[in-house]
Amino acid sequence: MSSATFSAKGLLSRDAMAFLVIAVLLLAVFPLALDLFRLNLVGKYLTYAFVAVGLVLCWGFGGILSLGQGIFFGLGGYCMAMFLKLEASSPENTAIQSTPGIPDFMDWNQVTELPWWWVPFKSFPVAMLAIIVVPTVFAYIIGAAMFKRRVGGVYFAIITQAIAAILTILIVGQQGYTGGINGMTDLRTLLGWDIRTDSAKYILYFVNAFLLLGVILTALAVKRSKFGRLLIAMRDKEDRVRFSGYDVANFKIFVFCLAAAFSAIGGAMFALQVGFMSPSFVGIVPSIEMVIFCAVGGRLSIFGAVYGALLVNWAKTTFSESFPELWLFAMGGLFIAVVMAFPNGLAGIWRSHVEPMLPRLLKRPHPIPPVAPSPTKAAAE
Amino acid sequence: MTDDVPGKRPHTLNRRKLLAAMAAIPALGMLGSSRAFAQDTSTATVNTTGLAVTDTDVTVGILHSVTGTMAISETGSVQAEILAIEQINAMGGVLGRQIKYIQEDGASDWPTFAEKAKKLLVQDKVASVMGCWTSASRKAVLPVFEQYNGMLYYPTFYEGLEESPNVIYTGQEATQQILAGIDWVVDTKGAKSFYLLGSDYIWPRTSNKIARRHIEMKGLKVVGEEYYPLEHTQFNSVINKIKLTKPDVIYAIVVGGSNVAFYKQLKAAGIDLTKEAPLLLTISVTEDEILGIGGENIVGAYAAMKYFQSLENENNAAFVRAFKERWGDGIVIGDVTQAAYLGPWLWKAAVEKAGSFDVDKVREASPGIELATAPEGYVKIHENHHLWSKLRIGHARADGQYDVVYETAELMEPDPFPEGYQ
Amino acid sequence: MIGDYTYDQFFSILAMQGFAGLILFSVFVLMALGLAIIFGQMGVINMAHGEFMILGAYVTWGVSLLVTSFAPVLFPVYFFVAMGLGFCASFALGLLVEWAMIRHLYRRPLDTLLATWGLSLILQQLYRSVFGAREVGVTLPDWMMGSLPLTDIIEVPINGLFVMGLTTLIAIGVFLLMFRSRWGKQVRAVTQNRVMAGAVGIDTRRVDRLTFGLGCGIAGVAGSAFTMIGSTGPTAGQLYIVDTFLVVVFGGAASLFGTIASAFAISQAQSSMEFFMSGSMAKVLTLLTVVGILMLRPQGLFTLKIRR
Questions:
Q1: Please, which of B225, C177, C240, C267 could form a disulfide with B196 given CB 3.0 to 4.6 Å?
Q2: Out of A154, A331, A340, whose CB is closest to C43?
Q3: Residues 187-246 of C with CB under 8 A from B
Q4: B182 and B160 in one domain?
Q5: Cβ atoms C83, C227 nearer than 8 A
Q6: pLDDT tens digits, C153-191
């Protein structure tokens, strides 16, 4: 990457502009332009954006491709869902069950009392903590085991896939404790506040948007810090970074855990907005789809990841209504195109084709740093 | 390709049928063949909740998977529902209005089902929805239907344990399918020991629980109970165990892709189901599944369903003929497909009895609705929104059809929350 | 549990389970061999591997239909023809895919993963559009169904024996190809040191293309064989993917022996555990053990010591 991109001024102004644009889009344009139904959909897409931003850090900058982000998305989502489900399963609501006071799926499976590991989720602070802590610990274990032994690249990707598959099988199999393949449905209230009403949907949307903006800021801070530079260095020439005295494994573990934490928050917001959680978000297929959101937006661009998530999901909803078969061809084609034709995604196209035109269009006095062609190649690894 | 994939946009019939139907309306009105025509059918009266109803038509939704792993099973349901709607329209429609349908694809993805359900109810304001197949999809859409007060007609035989005011279950629930089937195999075949086998999720597990209770209440033995993950393809281990424990009956609730693998491997292991030692009784294999399994691999097995394509009665003969005319000669019709066919008819009957499209009124009018023209014979809606229906036992033939060898004399009462079996 | 059976029965159980394990082993090897060749040779993970297998299965189905309509007398032996055609079809498709897509991505293995995943989506939808969303049933000749009774209690399914035989043949074939032929020497040279291999005059592009094609061809044969024991539908390829990858990765990518060894280990573990506990738990435990061992020894069982 050319040094110009790292000059504080150039970075600051470009990132600040982009952040402003996205903040306005999320906080003003969407709520005003879309009806509640569509806005709720956008809220759902934005929860995937959390995962995509995490992937930009860990894959785009760190070179660690994780095909199992669904694991963390799911873990965060399930923690939130467990709390909400317990609240919805108060003894009054579940009076018709043979054992009132426990979730309905436990009752159908002849479970007669709440398992010990469910009990802490009755408390809101514990649930909130669990949403962040459980996936991060999980990521730490996986990361430590892999990175300390210098496993990376394709191996790591496949192993994350295998773990995603295992988790799905476990959740589906242990249906007495997890709701099985149906997942946890019928989530109603959060601390007494009904999350299904229209006003609740609006509020949740804004909470989601604020959290996402917060996550973006965190990611930006990471990128512009020394750590961010080290990440990119590690991705490009790991051995040199090691020889310079840094413990590469620790950095990788950190960024992997960070990406996991972001995904977990996304999962929790998903459970809140959509009102249920199921193992169909945990497995191999959704995990790979999350990667494509990041890839389409531009794996090196934090903002691009958000746009990518929005765009691909929007396309999915619209096209699957009208042309379900064509859509699958299109999605497959998208994977291939993004990898072969525009590896830097939309952000890459923006940077190489649109940005140079901006000074002419806006007649700005100060120059925009020249775009070197090399980012494409260097980023292609 | 003989299978048409049904269209995706709001569907209107071709002009010839439409003209024929519209010509029929005044004629039917004169005949007064239905109680509803004696009432006021102006839009203001029949639609007080803002549904998609005009003076000439009413819109319903169809929500099934046309893509993804479930497309295999759900295609039949879509075809049945479209056929029913076209037949109803040819007869004059409902309350003098032609039925238009909006079809959405659930894509075998439960969240997509929930999203599309919301779209159909909130944006398109359909009067009712025929849809879903797996319990997971139904569970995912249930809160949507309850929140926005829609009515879902759900066709699949399932585990029960549910009774929603916003769903009419046109398929059997577990006790209807299981109890009579086990009674039959014990009384007719003298079975004394059972090996329970299923795919690992809620329907087989709940069904086997009910089956086990019933078997043990009769004083008989369950010699094994096994579950395999949904996508599992290697069954040699459990087949070995079956060979060793020598049960009289294999009670199989294997689902999806595993089905094909299981029956092929069973046959390859030398277990000839026609010899009935052991005998195989299943509640999860319809004629649709046999297409994939291959008739010669499952010949001799018994299935407990409420409907088989080979059922001999007038209604069914006409139904099969019409279905094949519409969708192609090579088509097979399973239990779920027939149950899906019942959906639009039951809805029509309820609407006409209530004299309104409003969901609350349709719900009030539904219990007690009878349909004597169902291909399976006479059915009636119970207060718990399930159907009174008979159970039949079919004997699988090599050509992929079933011979019906037994039929309960009485209609089985649906009991989604069976006492003592929980 | 052991007390329930007599000694006779117990040994019969062990014998039959052993056979079941061997059949599972053959299945894994067949599935994984094609992928291992590609992965070992080029470091490319082909996520569309399952779809290449299913292509072979569909070809078999097509041949079975043709033979039943036009040449019923050939029915008992059509299967061998079908397998050959399955190999050719998948081989050809593999060549095409390599030329169109893979060769641009050689230095980017992670991107190949994504691109081949996209390919698998496209292929699945293609099958759905051409053959229909429903599964198709492949009718098999009578002599292939049924089982061989060895003793009173022990019976071995014939199709299992067939699969074992086929796997042995293919494994021997691959071994001969890789270690005893000139082309195999070229392949190994390119694996060990691509640059030098190119410098001594080996056409690396051609070697890569043929290797990819071969790997896909073997997948096609595997899919063809699996019509005996499994289902054939547009999404059936997904059923085998996770197991195949694990076998390959566990064995150590660059080693064919590793693939065979890991297939043996995993299949035996799984089928033994299946006997004593439910299928789901056995699967989960097997996967957990594999992942656990991979965490301790991530390069797999056998590795190639080379300088890259």
A1: B225
A2: A154
A3: 228-233, 235-236, 238-240
A4: no
A5: no
A6: 677 778 788 888 888 999 899 888 888 888 888 888 887
CB spacing of A288 vs C114 below 8 angstroms? yes
Residues of B in contact with C239 (CB under 8 A): 231, 233, 257
Distance from CA of B230 to the nearest CA of C (A): 9
Q: Where are the domains of chain A?
A: 37-323
On whether any CB of chain B is under 8 Å from the CB of C15, the answer is no
Query: Could you give the CA distance from residue C33 to residue C173 in angstroms, rounded to a whole number?
Result: 11
Output the six-digit token pair for A203: 């509020």
Do the domain assignments include residue B9?
A: no
Q: Do B240 and C153 touch (CB under 8 A)?
A: no
Residues C17 and B238: their CA atoms lie apart, in Å, by 10
Among A155, A173, A333, beta carbon nearest to C298? A155
- Average pLDDT on C54-83 reads 85
B251 and B398 belong to one structural domain: yes
Q: What angle do CA A186, A190, A195 make, to 5 degrees?
A: 60
The shortest CB-CB distance from A182 to any of B112, B123, B202 is to: B202
pTM of the model: 0.81
In a domain, B37, yes or no: yes
Nearest by CB to B237, from C17, C135, C235: name it.
C17
> Is B319 in the same domain as B253?
no
- Residues B61-71 have a mean pLDDT of 83
Which residue, B174, B229, B106, is CA-closest to A175? B229
For chain B, counts of helices (H) and of strands (E):
14, 15
The residue type of C234 is P
Site from B104, B115, B159, B164 to mutate, A interface, most A CB atoms within 10 angstroms: B115
* CB-based contact C118 A149, cutoff 8 Å: no
Could you tell me which residues are beta bridge partners of residue B280? B250
Residue with tokens 């990132």: A15
Residues 167-206 of B with CB under 8 A from A: 200-202, 205-206
pLDDT score at C4:
57
Residues of B in contact with A109 (CB under 8 A): 202, 205-206
Task: Average the pLDDT over each of A231-240, A308-317, C247-256 and give the range with the smallest value.
Answer: C247-256
Chains B, C: CB pairs < 8 Å: 140
Helices (H), chain C: 7-42, 49-70, 78-100, 109-131, 158-180, 182-192, 194-199, 204-226, 238-251, 256-276, 279-296
Give the C-alpha separation, B28 to B312, whole Å.
30
| Confidence (pLDDT) at C5 | 58
Q: Which pLDDT value is given to residue B78?
A: 93
At C262, which amino acid appears? S
Asked whether the beta carbons of B80 and B334 are under 8 A apart, the reply is no
CA–CA separation, B226 and B246 (whole Å): 15
B75 touches C: beta carbon within 8 Å: yes
Average pLDDT over residues B296-314: 91
Please give the residue range of the domain that contains residue B288. 174-305+391-407
Q: How far apart are CA C20 and CA C268, in angstroms?
A: 9
B189 and B275 housed in the same domain: yes
Give the range with max mean pLDDT: B81-85, B325-329, C150-154.
B81-85
In a domain, B414, yes or no: no
Q: Tell me if C235 and B265 make a contact (CB, 8 A cut-off).
A: no
- Coil, helix or strand for B168? strand
C200-249 pLDDT, tens per residue?
988 888 888 998 999 999 999 999 888 887 778 888 888 788 788 888 88
The residue type of B336 is V
Count of domains forming chain B: 2
The minimum CA-CA distance between A334 and chain B, rounded to whole Å, is 18
Verify whether the Cβ–Cβ distance C298 to A162 is below 8 Å: no
Quick check: helix, strand or coil at residue B23? helix
- Which tokens go with A341? 């034709």
